[in-house]
Design goal:
The chain has about 550 residues and is of the alpha/beta class. The chain is about 55% helix and about 10% strand. The protein has helices spanning about 1-30, 40-45, 45-50, 65-70, 70-80, 85-95, 100-115, 120-130, 140-145, 155-170, 175-195, 195-200, 205-220, 230-240, 245-260, 260-275, 275-290, 290-315, 365-385, 415-430, 450-465, 475-480, 515-525, 530-560; strands at about 60, 95, 325, 330-335, 350, 355-360, 390-395, 400, 435-440, 470-475, 485-490, 495, 500-505, 510. Strands 8-9-10-6-11-14 form a six-stranded mixed beta sheet, sandwiched between helices. It has a four-stranded mixed beta sheet with strand order 3-7-4-5, covered by helices on one side. α6 (about 85-95) crosses α18 and α14 packs across α18 (about 290-315).
């Protein structure tokens, strides 16, 4: 009877475990190709990137460019990682532009396997999911940040620990020694809780490092991943040398997390009596300090695999994507490119060869979104080998932008001054001999018309020299004439019907020929006298512009002859 009951209980628990496992597998399978749920803590996500030395990268994207291109929103769309380690690794990868053909080929081989073999992918994700807790963000502190050092008087700690042990043993022979032990315990109690401020910095990261090493060891057993880092076992082995000492912190975290009061009180008293926490903490940190490279190797190995699954999931959920062709030429050519963050985004095609691109068109017609789309696709092409287009070709580029500029009130800088500083950096980069992509929106719109056009023409002519490519939007029609030898002209337009304004968001060759700004005022029921006066003034300004343009053309012809 009892055996039957025990059998039924055991069977029930096994069924619950099986169903739970089956449900987890199904969730992972169904989430493939879909957007990620949950919040994004960018302060922690950026932690690895902010502290990493990326000086050898072709380019590290600036905060300015990331802000211009809505990088955080892009990351939230691209990120399909399972672990916090993979999330930090992917973020760093997207911020650092590099091209490594051998690594790219290996990545594509692994992405194809992970896409076509759901059993392998899900088994990997289940293992990597052990690192999805927030505490895993802090693993990077163990190899990127300076560890705390023991105080000069630390030699007292082991002396007190041995004293406690000695008094405990002697107490069994003479109870008076237990009295002395109580006195030493009081001293140790103060030192034990002094050390809590030190311990709290590592009670999350060290247990997570144990998990990371175990996950890496499991993944490396799969022959599919050994090519990522054939020397990884050496790093895993060196970290395992500290495994037993680190397990102490894992037990500490578990007891804290599960509120097992009785066990916690006993364990806390035992640690206090022998000062185990400071002894083990500083002992572990001393050993980990010599293993920073090995810890990062393991971190990158797991993060890399998680990032590859993320890329595979991203591609699965896209209707259209392509692998970029990165060559040694100087042409950017793309078919049916689109902005990944715009729902049902219209696609456009363009070839940027000898000249750069000057865009005209009204607000909301699609100019800035198109400029951002080009920039984002170059970035994702160079980082995750994935572009949002039917096809795209471009050289190895550096990307700089001046799109979203605002006043810096904290540093007493106006909009115009902020733009001057940003564009000055672009001019400096344009002369460094690299192939650069400059993205600008309505240059110098913070100043008067005459100086805006004059400065804009001079800057845009300089930026377009050498092997640089420029995409710039403008409302200054004068620039279309002044820059026609250096820039191909394109435009976006809208249609105005009765009381509606419609946009097709399609890129068209040539300059914008129709204007609808005043018509839109009329549609929005501005006073008739305002609309009429605006129309008359615009006609007068057109006459002046036509005369000036004729004189300029005649002067040009005379100079040429």
């Amino acid at each position: 009877m009892i055996k039957d009951i025990l059998f039924q209980i055991n069977y029930a628990f096994s069924q619950i475990s099986f169903n739970k496992k089956k449900k987890a597998d199904q969730q992972l399978k169904e989430s493939f190709g879909k957007l990620k749920d949950g919040s994004f803590d960018f302060e922690l996500i950026e932690k690895y990137f902010r502290n990493k030395d990326n000086s050898k990268a072709h380019q590290v994207l600036s905060d300015k460019t990331c802000n211009d291109l809505d990088f955080d929103d892009l990351f939230m769309f691209l990120d399909r990682t399972t672990s916090k380690v993979g999330q930090q690794y992917l973020y760093n990868n997207l911020r650092t532009l590099n091209v490594n053909e051998k690594q790219t080929r290996l990545n594509e081989e692994l992405i194809n396997e992970l896409t076509n073999n759901p059993e392998v992918r899900i088994s990997v994700q289940k293992k990597i999911k052990n690192l999805h807790h927030k505490e895993a963000y802090y693993i990077t502190t163990l190899f990127q940040e300076q560890h705390i050092s023991p105080p000069k008087w630390f030699f007292v700690i082991p002396l007190l620990s041995f004293t406690s042990l000695g008094l405990l043993i002697l107490g069994f022979f003479n109870p008076l020694f237990f009295v002395a032990l109580v006195g030493v315990f009081c001293i140790n109690f103060v030192l034990h809780y002094w050390n809590k401020n030190n311990l709290v910095q590592y009670v999350s990261s060290i247990p997570q490092l144990l998990k990371l090493n175990a996950v890496a060891s499991h993944l490396f057993a799969n022959p599919l991943f050994k090519k990522i880092n054939p020397d990884l076992p050496a790093s895993i082995k060196l970290i395992n040398e500290v495994k037993n000492r680190m397990s102490f912190f894992q037990l500490e975290a578990k007891l804290q997390g599960e509120f097992e009061i009785i066990a916690w009180l006993f364990f806390e008293s035992f640690k206090t009596m022998f000062l185990l926490e400071p002894l083990l903490l500083f002992g572990v940190l001393k050993r980990l300090n010599t293993k920073r490279e090995e810890i990062e190797n393991v971190f990158k190995f797991v993060g890399h695999i998680d990032a590859l699954i993320s890329i595979a999931s991203l591609r699965k959920g896209l209707d259209t994507f392509c692998l970029p062709t990165i060559n040694d030429g100087n042409t950017i050519a793309t078919e049916e490119i689109y902005h990944p963050l715009i729902f049902n985004c219209s696609t456009n095609s363009i070839k940027i060869a000898e000249k750069s691109i000057l865009l005209t068109g009204s607000n909301m017609s699609g100019k800035t979104s198109f400029i951002r789309a080009i920039g984002l696709n170059v970035i994702t092409g160079l980082t995750i080998n994935t572009c949002f287009a039917k096809s795209i070709t471009f050289p190895l580029l550096k990307v700089f932008s001046a799109i979203r500029i605002s006043d810096d009130l904290m540093n007493d800088k106006s909009y115009y001054f902020e733009e001057v500083v940003t564009v000055k950096e672009m001019l400096k980069e344009s002369m460094n001999g690299n192939k650069n992509l400059f993205l600008l929106d309505e240059l110098f719109k913070g100043t008067n018309t005459v100086e805006r056009i004059a400065a804009g023409k001079a800057v845009l002519s300089t930026l377009a020299k050498q092997s640089n490519k420029v995409l710039v939007s403008t409302h200054d029609i004068e620039l279309t004439d002044m820059l026609s030898n250096e820039y191909d002209l394109y435009h976006f337009s809208e249609t105005v019907n009765n009381k509606t304004v419609g946009f097709d968001y399609k890129l068209k060759e040539g300059r914008l020929t129709n204007r609808n700004a005043i018509k839109i005022l009329e549609i929005n029921e501005y006073p008739k006298e305002v609309v009429s006066e605006a129309i008359e003034i615009s006609k007068e300004l057109d006459k002046i512009y036509t005369v000036k343009n004729t004189v300029r053309n005649n002067d040009t012809q005379y100079t040429s002859s």
